[in-house]
Specification:
415 residues, mainly alpha
Length: 415
């Protein structure tokens, strides 16, 4: 039993989780329904927010999650890379967003663009793995070009491939520069870079009178099942981490002293056990928030929670997340403009975690303020980028981090 636990720890439980989703796909739906739903997923526009459970059903969505994650695990294996903190974050982020936006079809052109960049610049492809894993945040660009504009497929397919390849070509140099803009205080840096790419394409499409409208297609029919999965995974992670090494609790308190500013690698600094414990504790925090706010879980919310939990290995922990999330919740309560039944609001509340390093560095009140204004800025960011960037809150966080950190540093220097 201990050998099994050690193997799972080495792989950070990802293969096990993928197997559970793959088997689960055929337990909740008949095989014919799974594949029919999967076809619907592959051929939908996927623009933000498109819950794949609403499009193809739960079985097809779990199948999509499993296949996309397996594909990326194979890439990691072929490149002979070990799972570091940021690679784990990228893989879990892919897993989460495969519930609402990512599939095999809309990721391949982007990956090919990054591969071309590596060949042109004569850079080892494995050195671009971080950008590769996070690049598919703009995958709806490919799907919308193929299926969203209403073009015949002989126009749509080449357009989608070309746009995806171009996005892949430019995202690596752009992401390397955007981190300077927010000074590493937006954990979802690639989301910010992809937002800029999305603004570029959205502007071009608008110029040529090609309308791209965001949607809100969600399904909360499996609320209790998804809630049960979240609780089970969280509790199992905590128990497993402590069972493998009781000293992980002590290391966890040391981990919480870190600001989380980019680039952080908690696997390297504190070990896999501590990250697994952190993962589970954050999962319990999200469960409590859902229950207190009375939120029903749909595919988009569940995928968001998983994606955020992935950063338990590279920047997020209970101490630096709590105040920014509290600030976001207070923003909704105080402004009274939107409520917690809104999926977009809940996505903003969970993804405000991208600003956690601000609280980690400057304290609770700075975190509260950053979280408070983030919720107001996220809808504006969505209007700018048109919904092609799944990491819209990462895009918004980049601007918020730049503003808040610049002001804090200015007053800090004056004092």
């Amino acid at each position: 039993m201990r050998r099994i636990l050690i193997y799972c720890k080495k792989s950070m439980f990802l293969p096990l989780l993928v197997i559970i989703f793959l088997v689960g796909a055929f337990l909740v739906d008949k095989p014919v329904d799974v594949f029919k739903g999967y076809y619907k997923i592959l051929t939908c526009s996927s623009i933000l927010v498109t819950d794949y459970i609403a499009v193809g059903g739960l079985g097809a969505t779990l199948f999509n999650v499993a296949t996309v994650t397996i594909f990326n695990l194979i890439i990691i294996r072929i490149l002979d890379l070990r799972i570091t903190g940021i690679i784990f974050s990228g893989l879990v982020c892919i897993l989460g967003f495969s519930f609402f936006g990512k599939n095999i079809i809309n990721t391949l052109p982007i990956y090919f663009g990054i591969y071309l960049f590596s060949r042109i610049k004569k850079i080892a492809f494995k050195n671009l793995i971080v950008t590769l894993l996070f690049s598919t945040g703009i995958s709806p660009l490919v799907s919308y070009c193929i299926f969203g504009f209403g073009f015949p497929l002989y126009y749509g397919i080449p357009l989608g491939i070309v746009c995806g390849v171009i996005a892949g070509l430019i995202i690596t140099p752009l992401a390397n520069h955007t981190i300077k803009f927010h000074q590493g205080y937006d954990i979802y840096n690639t989301g910010f870079a992809l937002g800029i790419v999305s603004v570029l394409f959205y502007g071009i499409f608008t110029t040529f009178k090609l309308d791209a409208d965001t949607v809100m297609i969600v399904c909360d029919d499996y609320h209790y099942l998804l809630l049960g999965i979240l609780i089970f995974v969280s509790v199992a992670s905590i128990i497993t981490a402590i069972a493998l090494d009781r000293g992980t609790i002590k290391r966890y308190f040391k981990l919480m002293k870190k600001s989380g500013r980019l680039v952080s690698d908690f696997i390297r600094d504190f070990g896999r056990d501590t990250v697994i414990l952190n993962f589970g504790i954050l999962g319990i925090l999200f469960t409590i928030i859902l229950l207190i706010l009375g939120v029903r879980i749909n595919g988009a919310i569940f995928g968001t929670i998983l994606a955020v939990l992935g950063f338990a290995s590279s920047g997020l922990h209970l101490r630096n997340m709590f105040s920014v999330m509290l600030g976001a919740i207070l923003s909704v309560l105080v402004t009274n403009l939107r409520d917690f039944d809104s999926t977009s609001v809940m996505l903003s509340i969970f993804f405000v975690s991208g600003l956690a390093p601000i609280a980690g560095k400057y304290g609770m009140f700075a975190g509260l303020f950053a979280g408070f204004i983030h919720v107001m800025f996220a809808p504006l960011a969505l209007e700018m980028q048109g919904g092609f960037d799944l990491y819209n809150n990462g895009f918004a966080s980049g601007f918020v981090a730049c503003i808040v950190v610049s002001v804090l540093e200015a007053f800090k220097k004056e004092n």
